Amino acid sequence: MGGDPSGLQRGDFFTRFFNIGNKDFYNIVNKYIKPYIVSKATVLEIGPGGGGWTNYLLWADRLILVDINDEFFSYLSKTFLEHKKKFIFYTTKGYELTGIESESVDFVFSFSVFVHIEVKGILQYMHEIARVLKNNSVATIQYADKTKLMGFLNPHFSNMTYKKMEIYIKNLPRLKIVEHNGRLLNHSNIIVLQKI
Q1: Taking a C-beta distance cutoff of 8 angstroms, is the pair 59, 81 a contact?
Q2: What are 163-185's pLDDT values in tens digits?
Q3: pLDDT at 6 over 50
Q4: Residues near 172 by Cβ (< 8 Å), separated by ≥ 6?
Q5: Cβ-based burial of 69 (10 A; exposed 0-12, middle 13-18, buried ≥19)
Q6: In this structure, are residues 37 and 62 in contact, taking their beta carbons and an 8 Å threshold?
């Protein structure tokens, strides 16, 4: 099965295209993905694009791939042909997961998507994530941090910060912060949220 993060070639890809070093990449896979894909898990990925992170979600029994661009779906089906039967594709119209059943997902993952979403869209998505997650299940989300130099210099990054995210999540019902890592990446942060 695909998804073994030990190959240097995959790490090099992330270094070039996501500005993530090999060590940071492996930390993300081992700390923020693997522990949350439990036996018979249903995993939802927001913004799979070309499948760079999807490759590390294939341990799931069922994988819901959500993107605003459905053109990626045929590519993902071909790229991960042996796993195609576990894929469910959902084309979102914006910051919604309306077509996904409430309390049906064990783990939500999104990387390189929320960095481009402004606060209003993030909050809309957070409400939807809380709705689709099963009780006590978690979501790992990467988002932009404009207080970091590399985040500030990226004109495509949204105007979000560590402090803002803390405030917004504390005011959202049904989600609590399990971990909030502001140190690992030089342009963004990673937050792990649990549905309560």
Answers
A1: no
A2: 999 999 999 989 999 999 999 99
A3: no
A4: 123, 126, 127, 130
A5: exposed
A6: no
CA-CA distance, 52 to 65, in Å (whole number)? 13
Give domain limits for the chain.
8-195
At CA 117, angle to CA 163 and CA 12, rounded to 5?
A: 90
Burial 89-120 (b: 16+ CB within 10 A, else e): bbebeebebeebeeeebbbbbbbbbbbebeee
Q: Are 44 and 132 in contact (CB under 8 A)?
A: yes
- Considering Cα of 25, then 81, then 134, then 159, what sign does the dihedral take? positive
Q: CATH for 8-195?
A: 3.40.50.150
Distances (CA, A) of 182 to 147, 179, 185, 192: 11, 10, 7, 12
Read off the pTM. 0.89
Write the CB contacts of 155 (distance below 8 Å, at least 6 apart in sequence): none
Residue 33 and residue 25: Cα distance in Å, rounded? 11
